[in-house]
Structure formats: C-alpha cells, structure tokens
Amino acid sequence: MRVISQAFQEISPADFFYRNREIAGFSNPSKAVFSAIRELVENSLDATEPFGILPDIYIRLSSTSNNEVEEGFYSLIVEDNGIGIPGEHIPHAFCQFLFSSKYRLRQSRGTFGLGGTMAILYGQVTTNKPVRVVSSTGDQKIYEFLLMIDIERNRPIILGKKTYNNDEQWHGTIVEISLEGDYPRAKPKIVDYLKQTAIANPYANIMFVDPRGRLYKFERTMSTLPPQPKETLPHPHGVDVETMHRMVRATQCKTLIDFLEKHFHRVGRQTARSFLEFAGFPEDMDPKALKPEEIVRLVQAMRSFNGFLPPDASCLSPLGEEILKAGIVKELEPEFVAVTQRKPSAYSGHPFIVEVGIAYGGKVPVRDDGDITLYRFANKIPLVYDESGDVSWKVIKSIEWRRYGVEPGMPLAVIVHICSTKVPWKTVGKEMIADRPEISHEILYGIREVARKLKLYLSRKEKAKHEKARLSVFAKYLPKIAEFSTKLAGEKNVPDIKGLLRRVRRLEGD
Amino acid sequence: MRVISQAFQEISPADFFYRNREIAGFSNPSKAVFSAIRELVENSLDATEPFGILPDIYIRLSSTSNNEVEEGFYSLIVEDNGIGIPGEHIPHAFCQFLFSSKYRLRQSRGTFGLGGTMAILYGQVTTNKPVRVVSSTGDQKIYEFLLMIDIERNRPIILGKKTYNNDEQWHGTIVEISLEGDYPRAKPKIVDYLKQTAIANPYANIMFVDPRGRLYKFERTMSTLPPQPKETLPHPHGVDVETMHRMVRATQCKTLIDFLEKHFHRVGRQTARSFLEFAGFPEDMDPKALKPEEIVRLVQAMRSFNGFLPPDASCLSPLGEEILKAGIVKELEPEFVAVTQRKPSAYSGHPFIVEVGIAYGGKVPVRDDGDITLYRFANKIPLVYDESGDVSWKVIKSIEWRRYGVEPGMPLAVIVHICSTKVPWKTVGKEMIADRPEISHEILYGIREVARKLKLYLSRKEKAKHEKARLSVFAKYLPKIAEFSTKLAGEKNVPDIKGLLRRVRRLEGD
Predict the structure, then answer these.
(1) Hey, are the CB atoms on A23 and B427 less than 8 Å from each other?
(2) Full-model pTM
(3) What is the interface pTM, i.e. ipTM, of the complex?
(4) Is the CATH code 3.40.50.2000 the one for domain A313-457?
(5) Where are the domains of chain B?
(6) Can you tell me the distance from the alpha carbon of B234 to that of B214, in angstroms, rounded to the nearest whole number?
(7) Of A47, A53, A21, A46, which is closest to residue A36 (Cα–Cα)?
C-alpha cells in the first residue's frame, strides 16, 4: 500500500467565515447588502432598547461607483445613540470573530456576535477598504478608528486612531463600511425589513436614505420601552456535562445544596433538597469533589427530575398584545385583526414565548400563489428570507384552513413572534427557526386561537351578507304586496311599510 | 449619561460550535445520532474513493443504557479502509475545530472539516466519555488514541496512546464515540440516508448494525470507481481581494503575466496577455509591487473581463447517466425512468454539474400531500432533511406540471444531483443548497428535459389506453354487424372477423 500524504491545516475563525460567508447570509451582492444593513441595525437596537434608551437609528447607503467597471459599490453608514463601546474594546469588538459582549443568557437580537464583523469582512474582501468606527460611552472621549481584519490571524489591524473631547456627553456608535452590493435587487427586502422592524419596535426612530436619495422614515409611535430583559441563570433541564464542569470549576460554594440554589434558575432550598435526595448525592458534598462520572450522573438526574419549576419568563421581552395589534393595524390596516400571547413555555431549559396575530382584508396583500402571507419575527427582528424552511411556515401548511372559513386567495396574513433567551436558529444567517416540538406546538395553538376568532368574524360577515340579500328581496316585493293588498281590500291608501322593514331589520340584527 | 459597562469575551471556535450546535445539525438527540453517523460515513467515503480505494464501511450503533435513567445512550463505531491519518495528526484532526485536510479546491463530501469533530464534541458533552481513534496509513505502525476536546481552548486532550505493529499493512480508520441519541426516532432518516448513499456510491460496501442487532447491508454493485476529482486552481471570476492578496504574497513569479498563467484556472499565455491589456497593467510588472488599490482594480477587471474560458469540469466527479439510472432502477423499480447530465456550468468561478432523473410508477412512492417525491444529492451525498428550503424544491414548485401530463398524487419522483468544488450550502449542517441563479437554471432545464420524456411516455400510454377502449367497442359490435350484414345479404355463413380486428390493431399500433 502506497502511503498517501495529506496536507493538514489550521485556519482561524475569521478565515472559516471568510471561506463560508454564505452560511452567514453573505452569499451574493444582493443578499450581502441586505445582511450588512440588517446586522448593523440589530447591533444598534441591541445597544439601545435593552439599556433603557429610545433608539434613534440613521442608515445611509450611497453609491461610490463612478464608472462602469466599478458598478455596484456602496458606502454604508449606520449611526445610533446606543451605549457605545469603550475605546479599548473597539478594534476587537468589530474586527475579531468570536469576540463579543453577547455570550450571555439574555434575550437579544444578535446572538452569535459575528454579524457586524461579517459585514466588515465582506466589505473588506470586496473593496479592500477599512471600516471607520466612531464611538463613545458618554464619558469624556470619543474614539475614531480606521480598522481592517487580519483574516489569517483573526486580529484587528489598526490603520488609524483619533480621540475627541466629548463635551456634550454624546453616546452612540457610527459604523461606516464600503462594500460591493446590488441595491436594486435588494431594495424590496431591505424596505420590507425596515417596515417590519418598525412594526415590532414602535419605540424606535429609524431613518434610511437610499442610494437615490430617497428617504424612508419610520417614526416612533410610542415612547415607553418594553420591560428590560434580565440576564438569567441556566435552568437545570438545559444543562449539559460541559456547562456543569464549567460551573463546578468556577463556583465559590462549598456544598452541593448551596451550589444548586445559587447557580440555577428557579431552584430554591426545598427544590435543591428534594432533587439531591432523588439523585442520591449528599447535601454537604463539596461540588469540586465531584468526579467526572458523578458529574454525568448529576446532569442525567437533572434531566429526569420532574420537581423543578418551569423557567420563568421575566428574562424575556415579548411585544405584548397591545404593541403587536397596533403594529399590525398601522401596517396592514386590516378589516379584521386578532392577536394572542401564549403562556411562557420552555425547550431544553430555555424559556420562550410565542405571540400570534391574524389580519384579514384591508391592505393585507394577496399572494400570487394564493397562500397565506406570513410575517415572522424572532426577538423583535423580522425574518424576510427563507420562509419555506421555517417552523412557522410548516405549522401554517399543516392547518386545515377551510375549517376556519379560509379559502385560497383571501387577503389573509399570519404574524408569528417568538422570543427566547436562545432562539433555535437553523443558520448563522438567522433566517430560519428550527422545528422544536415545544415551539411548533405553541405556534399551532396560537394560530388556532386567532383563526377561531377569524372564523367567527367571517361567518358573521357571511350571515350579514345573506340577510342583506334577503332584506333587499323583501324591500323589493313588499311595496307591490302592499299595493295589491290595498286594492284587494278596496282601500285607497297604501300603508306605510317603512316601519315594517325597519322592524324586520332590527330582528335580523339580533 | 451613566456609563454602562459591558463584559466582552473571546471564545474559541470549539466553544462557538458547542454553544451553537444546532447550526451544525446537532439540535436534538434524534438529529444528533443521525448527524454523527452521517459525518463519520462521509469522512470514510472521502478517505477512500478519491484515493482510488473501493470503500468498505462498517457502522455499528449499540445501546449502552442499562437502566431507565440512562435511556437513550449509545456507542457508535465507524470503520473504514481509507488512507488513514498519520499518527502525529490524529489528535488535532479529530479534536480541534478548524483543523482539517479539506481546505482545498476539490470536490469532496465534507467541506467544512468540522463534522467529525462536532460529533465527538456532542458525544463528549452528553456523556463525558472520550473518543477512541485507531488509524494507520498502511506504514509500519497502527496508532490508537483516547481523546477529548478542551472546548474552552480548542485543543485535543490526549488521555491515552498506544502503537501496534502493522505487519499486514492495514490502512484505514476506526472511530468510536459515546453519545446521547434517540435511535427509534432517527431510524427512518438513517436508513433512508444509507440507502440513498448506496444509490449514489454503488462502488461502496456499507454495513450497518443497529441497536437491535439488525443488519442493513448495502453491497457494492460495481467495482469501477469514478474518475478521481482533481485539485484545481481558482478561476479568475471567483477571486476576491483577499484571495488575490494571499496569492501575491505566496507567488514566486516575477511578472504579472507569469503569475496569471501559473496560478489561475484556464488562463494561458494568450488570455493573460489580452486580459492585462484590457485591465491596463504591464505584462512584466512584479506582482509583489502591486499596491492595495491596484489589487482591487485587478480583481474588478477580472470580474468584468469576458475573455476567460469557463471553468472546466475535470475537477468534478459526477455520477454519470449510467450510474444514476442504475441507482434509480435498483431502488425504485419504476415503470418509466429518464436521466440527463447537464453540461458543466459555473457560478462565481466555481464549476458545477447538475444531473437529473425522473421516475414514474413501479415502487415510486406517492406522498400524502400529493406532491412529487424529491431525492436530493450533493457531491454524492444524500440530503434527507429540510427539503422545503432547498433550491431543487423551489424549482420543482415553480414548474407547471400539468403541462407534462402530471397530476397531483401520481407516483412520481425527481432526482437531482449537484456536484461542485464548492457546493453553496446554506447551513453548516449541509442540508440545503442556496438558490444561486446559475444553479437553479441548470436544475430547471434538467428537469424540463426529463419531464418532456415523461410526457411523451404518459401520452403514449394514454393513447394506448384509448385505443384499447376503442378496440374493445369494435370487438363488441363487429360480430353483431357481421351477423346483420350476413342476413341482409341473404348469406348463410358469417365471415371471419378475427383477421379484420387484428389488422385494425396493427394499424393503430403504428
């Protein structure tokens, strides 16, 4: 046997995402310009709302092409009034993959902490231009950086750095990148995305100036922010061996019972006690004395113990029925709308809430294929690509819509919002939510609930239509009947039938 | 303004994939056991076929649960006769993310080089048990390692190492992992996957022993291997600024014309010359003297220059019409089958070939929803999850099937195989192919081609049915007519009409 040698190679995370940028949503110039805007806008929202700041976001995309060869090149600026990033962290936060402030158990829009860096990388490999970042946390200094990514080493390259005095205590971040793109093709998706973002974030001011100078303005319609999502502890049902190892390594607790009570979500003294009894571990055992196989046993026991309370949803920040309804009414001006918020649920220890709306008539669009229009949101971000691979679409297709009086081709929209500390994304590009049975169950029941209300509305409408038709028959023949009867009775004056018709109408209206 | 501090953190690639294992196909115990088998089998195929070895792959999944708490735990062994991995590379190749032999421009099944490591990581975090790897390249030694992954540092931990003499010059790899799984739920997908793998790799022997001891045996039906895919150079249309920088840094060439001719796919002296003239660069310029902005200009000119030859497909290894047809016939035993191989095409400088088959009747299944059954393959691997998000499904749904005589609920299957040096995956889990216009175009034309053949078959069949009906009417009335005519003519003997009927049948059969 001839020995065949293969070349082995280690690549950096930046290099991995550079080689596989399709998986992060940068698959072609049209998708890339969409994804760049989306990632930067989501970073801006994550830097404002969760910290109690009403978001002001300004986006400008301008063409930098000045000849035919350079067609399709843009400059993108996104500016926000967020909490800013400390000067010393700016280069790494923007130009290093897998460096982020987002690795926490809290509901946020971005979760992988690589979207912004991916946009910068894409700009760099298509234009070779650096990113410009200006930021301040509201302290004495404003920092301005010119940065590139050393892709092979996954490190920032600092090309320039300036500081300014911040007398007005401005806080926020401005990011400016150059990139190849295809705005004409991306435009409908970008506008859809911003519109829907405005629906789900009605407390935000969003301004977008497009390459032709058109201004899209989405003004804040309310100035109260939703309750801030709290950081949470891991729930015992969602913990695996690796997490348990890390927790044991890091804890200061000296006994297992203290350890459980302190580091786990919704585990009190009493629950910890009955769990340890169930699992067969002494309460006063030192967590650091656990042997590897004991850790495995502890984790397995946690999964099968039924005495834990379900995760609570105080760490979540749903839209609420009021905001959801207002957003739908504002955007679709429907003839009928119903919304519902499902009770909090959990999958693998991660809490989530599903909110569902249904809208009929008015400006609700009718799809060419006759299907129902679906608007999907996850942690308040709209998902506008890859609908058919999403759990919500699967649920919609599984429903026997005729039972709810729905026929193909009706102007009908379903709105689904899922919020969670951990949205089960199928892709790094955050376009599709995976089909976890707990989640599809909640979506299904949510849709059924609003669909029943729609059915009631439609059948009332249908009935009213029938009655109207019946009455118009009445109204048509009653004068004739009255006339004949008058003649037959040898009377001269035809009785007034208006009162009669009114009475019939009232009776029917009951 | 209160300054809010955020905690920034760098995580390792191993930690990233640990936290986001859903994106790599390890979202729940059922999917995980499927993905673990799939990733290891694909590594085995990649270690055999491309190196001229007829694959022998043995898979065993056994339950390790011996009580109720431990339900759903398995041991998985995958053994192959591949080229093996040199001893010094084993720990890194298996237990370090982004370390691989697969970062090359060549058609291969695995492309991210992280599937096997992901399976090992999943096993580790669910069972805390090490992976056992035995491998030899066929030289004097066989190596056996017990390994775990240091997830926070992305490094292998060597728990044990042995070497054996390899007197029989055995080569291959054995991987054994422990993992949590749900075989009963995963079984249909696993069996489908292996069946379809056998269709696309008929030169492989694949044996699978499942936890209940059932043996699934897919025996090789041919012993000639397809031509080995060659490694290729980048095509000028697919090169970005970063790649160009790297090439310039690495080249030994002293002039631009040499540089272009040596390092690019299908660029000869003449093409290089006319391109440089088009782009406005001197032929004898030293590539290392290119300034950053000149590199950008060079790359842009490469995109817009129309004089490059399209990528050639010698680096691809399609199935071929014969193998494709044989596989379909073997598996579906259809009444009708047609296959086609499209001409090589390219997207962003990556060559690809689409092969399409259509099968009707026989054992072709009928779907509950009346839709067409779709079998998808990419680089000879079957894709069995997330059909609705795939480009092929999108194309199928866009076709007006009635034009081809196809009605909902027919036993009809479409088979699509895409091979490329770079399959545009949507996800790290390699389940869906992205909708690149060049690819969907080839799929559409391929399907139309075979659908036309099906239409011809179906209309012939329909016609034959009609004729049969017509003839049976003839056959029914002709004797009566003959009888009457005989009587009318005053004759006694009714003429023999069998010859007449036979002649009509012959005429109709033309």
Answers:
(1) yes
(2) 0.87
(3) 0.86
(4) no
(5) 13-218, 236-304, 313-457, 462-508
(6) 46
(7) A21
